Amino acid sequence: MTMEQVLFYLMAGIAVGSALYVAATKNLVRSVFMFFVTLMAVAGLFVPCMADFVAITQVVIYVGGILVLIIFAFMLSGRETLANLQQQSKFISISKVPAFLLAGLFFIVLLNIILKGNVNGLVWTEKAVLTSNVITAKDTTIDNIGVNLMGNYLLPFEAISILLMMALVGAAHLSRKERGV
Amino acid sequence: MHDLLPSLHGQLDQVLGSLPYFIPEVYLVVFFLAVLVTDLVFGRNSGWMCHILAIVGLVVVIYRDLQQFMFVVNESNVLIFSGMLILTRTAIVLKIFTDLFALVMLFYFVWDDKLSSHNKGLSDLYTITVAAVFGMHLMTMASNLLSVYLSIEMVSIASYLMVAYKAENKWSSEAGLKYVLFGAASSAIMLYGISLLYGLGGSLDIFGMAAGLAQANPLFVSFALVLFFVGIGFKLSFVPMHFWVPDIYEGAPTPITAFLSTVPKFAAFALLISFLAPFTNPALMWRSFDFRLFFSVIGIATMIVGNFAAAMQNNVKRMLAYSSIGHTGFALMAIVTALIMPAGRGLPVLTFYLVAYALAGTAAWMLATYFADAAGAEDMNGYKGLGFKYPVAGVCFVIVLISLTGLPLTAGFYGKFLTFSAAYQAYEIGHNTWLLALMITSAVTTVVSLFYYIKIPLNLFLRKTDRTTGFAAMNNWLLTVVAIITILVVYLGLFPDFLTKYL
Amino acid sequence: MENLLQQIDTLTIKFALVAVLLPLLAAVVNACLPGRTNKVAGWISTLAILGSCILSFFVFSKVWNQHVVHQKVLWFAIADTKLYAGILLNNLSALMLLLVSLVSLPVHIYSTAYMKGDTHYKRYFTYLSFFCFSMLALVVSDNLVLFYIFWELVGFSSYLLIGFWYTKPKAVLANKKAFIMNRIGDIGLLSAVIILYALFHTFDIAQLFGDNMSGSALANQMPVGVQRIACIGLFLAVAAKSAQFPLHTWLPDAMEGPTSISALIHAATMVAAGVFLLGRFYPIFTPAELTVLAVIGCFTAFMAASIALTQNDLKRILAYSTISQLGFMVMAMGIGAYASSLFHLATHAFFKCLLFLVAGIVIHEMQHIKDQNKLDIDPQNILYMGGLRKKMPLTFIACVIAGLALVGLPFTSGYLSKDSILIQSFEWAEGKGWLYELIPIGALLTSWLTAFYVIRLIAKVFLGDFRLIEFDPNIKLHISDGNWQYRVPLILLALCCLFPVFSYNPLLYEKAWLFNGFSAITGLDRVNIYHTIIPALVNILSLIIMYWSWAIYTKRKALPFPETGLLFKFSYHEWYIDTLYERFIIKPVMSFSVLARWIDRNIIDGFIHLLANIGIAASKVAEWFDRYIIDGVLHLLASIVLAIGNFARRFQNGRVQYYLFSMLAIILAIFIIKTLF
Amino acid sequence: MNILSLLIFIPLLFGLIIVVLPSSLRASFKYITLLATLVQLGISIFLYIHFQTGAEHAGINNEAQFQFVQKLPWINLDLGSLGKMQIDYFVGIDGISITLVVMTCVVMVIAALASWEIKSNLKGFFALFLLLNTAVIGVFCALDFFLFYIFYELMLLPLYFLIGMWGGARREYAAIKFFLYTLFGSVFMLLVMVGLYLSVKDPATGNHTFNIVQMMNPANYDQGSIFSAFAHKTILGVSARTVGFVVLFIAFAIKVPVVPLHTWLPDAHVEAPTPVSIILAGVLLKVGGYGIIRTCLGIFPEIASSGAWWLGLLGVISIIYGALNALAQRDLKRLIAYSSVSHMGFVLLGIASQTTEGISGAVMQMVSHGFLSTMLFFLAGVIYNRVHDRDIYNFRGLGSLMPKYTTFTMIAFFASLGLPGLSAFMGEAFSLVGAFKSPSINGYLPYWMAICGSVGILLSAGYFLWTLQRMFFGGLALKGGDIWRTALTDLNTRETIALLILAVLTLALGIMPSLVFGKINDSVLGLIHFLSRT
Amino acid sequence: MITLTDFLVVSAALFCTGLFIILSKRNAIQILIGIELMLNAANLNLVAFGRYDKINNGGQIFVLFSITLAAATTAVALAIILNVYKRYKTIDPNKIDELKD
Question: What is the pTM of this model?
Answer without folding.
Answer: 0.89
